[in-house]
Write a structure and sequence with these properties.
This protein is α/β, with parallel strands linked by helices and 382 residues long. It folds into 2 domains: 252 residues, Type I PLP-dependent aspartate aminotransferase-like (Major domain) (Aspartate Aminotransferase, domain 2), CATH 3.40.640.10; 112 residues, Aspartate Aminotransferase, domain 1 (Alpha-Beta Complex), CATH 3.90.1150. Helix content is 38%, strand content 15%. The protein has a 7-stranded mixed beta sheet, with helices on both faces. Strands 9-10-13-12 form a 4-stranded antiparallel beta sheet, covered by helices on one side. Helix 4 links the parallel strand 3 and strand 4. The chain starts with a strand and ends with a helix.
Length: 382
């Protein structure tokens, strides 16, 4: 049986309650929400509404309708970035960002539509809020930052940066792909205007689910235009949220699974999940300390990081080591650049990348020991 240690990409396995919710909904309620008045359509609509309420409570949003269902975090980030930026705007981001942030911003920069400042990080992977403050100009429209990078796992001081953004009347977009479901997020207290997150990672939902929170002070342009079910007479997208940003049939089946995933996370408790994952990371780190030829990246303050560990082997490139672990030991990890080339360039691991290990709620100490033993066996034979 595969030992799965790639939860930073997507969580697996899902809780049994998620599988049951998906099966039950698919068999009983899989109708088109808002498109008809029959019982199945109303049940589907209720599922969307209920999940919005859960998200609003979970992230302390201003209102449930401000939570927009998307295909994934990439979809949500594109919706936010391209929805609020205009010709001549200045944007601040960082070297930590996933390509879901970096690529749309870089393309807008190459097209000559925006100016872009990319701030660096310290040796542990932390953004200096003062560097963000210093980068703000009269043209700055948006600060777009990750809450925790998917390579180093460092949790960023977004509460401080959020205050800086609000004081300067700059919009603040946070990519919570690695933190939603494992680190507390309060969009009001942290002055987050736009929060993008996947449903399929630490919130334990299925793939094909994502969310964008849009604060009331933000009015992005519509990302996709089409049917909304409730208002068919308007010639353009209805201005009412969430329908203004949710053209087309939503992934209501996926949302049913996401709702069950949120239930699981709330019952387990974010602090318990976080502690379990970082304890497993520290267990692996201690084993790597005992083996020559391994270099671990990032700081070791587990209170300020998520359960992700990236390292380099002196004798084998990351992709080759990952292939051996997969084929010979049935252990799934993520080698390479992790869709985040700028941070790999900053820490000197470009272009080969690193081996990333990211345990989840269902991993055990035995899984970590098996990985460490496998690494020792591989390197001892070289």
């Amino acid at each position: 049986m595969t030992i799965y240690l790639d939860n930073a990409a997507t969580s697996f396995p899902k809780p049994e309650s998620v599988y049951q919710a998906l099966d039950r909904f698919a068999r009983q309620s899989l109708a088109n929400p808002g498109r008809a008045g029959h019982k199945m359509a109303l049940a589907a609509e209720h599922t969307l509404d209920d999940c919005r309420h859960r998200l609003n409570q979970f992230f302390n949003g201003k209102a449930p309708e401000r939570f927009i269902f998307t295909m994934n975090a990439t979809d949500a980030l594109n919706m936010a970035i391209k929805g609020v930026l205009s010709e001549g705007d200045h944007v601040i981001t960082s070297v930590l960002e996933h390509n879901s942030v970096s690529r749309p911003l870089r393309q807008l920069e190459l097209d000559g539509r925006i100016r872009l400042t990319r701030v660096g990080v310290d040796a542990g992977g932390t953004i200096d809020p003062d560097a963000v403050r210093a980068a703000i100009t009269p043209k700055t429209r948006l600060i777009a930052l990750t809450h925790a990078g998917n390579v180093l796992g460092t949790v960023q001081p977004i509460d401080i940066i959020g205050r800086i953004a609000r004081e300067a009347d700059v919009l603040f977009l946070v990519d919570a792909a690695q933190t939603a479901g494992v680190i507390p997020i309060d969009v009001q207290a942290m002055h987050i205007d736009l929060l993008a997150l996947p449903g399929h990672k630490s919130l334990m939902g299925p793939t094909g689910t994502g969310v964008l929170y849009v604060a009331p002070r933000v009015r992005p342009r519509a990302w996709r235009e089409g049917g909304t079910g409730g208002d068919s007479s308007s010639e353009t997208m209805p201005t009412e949220f969430p329908y203004y940003l949710e053209g087309g049939t939503p992934n209501v089946l996926g949302v049913a699974g996401l709702r069950a995933g949120i239930d699981f996370v709330e019952k387990q408790g974010l602090a318990n999940i976080h502690r379990h994952e970082v304890d497993l990371v520290e267990r692996l780190w201690r084993r790597l300390d005992e083996m020559p030829g391994f270099e671990v990246f990032g700081h070791r303050n587990h209170a300020q990081r998520v359960g992700t560990l990236s390292f380099r082997c002196e004798t084998l490139p990351a992709t080759e080591l990952g292939g051996i672990l997969d084929q010979a030991f049935d252990i799934a990890i993520r080698p390479g650049l992790h869709c985040a080339p700028y941070i790999h360039k900053a820490i000197g691991s470009f272009p080969d990348g690193l081996v990333r290990v990211s345990p989840g709620p269902f991993n055990t100490e035995a899984d970590i020991d098996r990985l460490a033993d496998a690494l020792g066996e591989i390197t001892s034979g070289l």
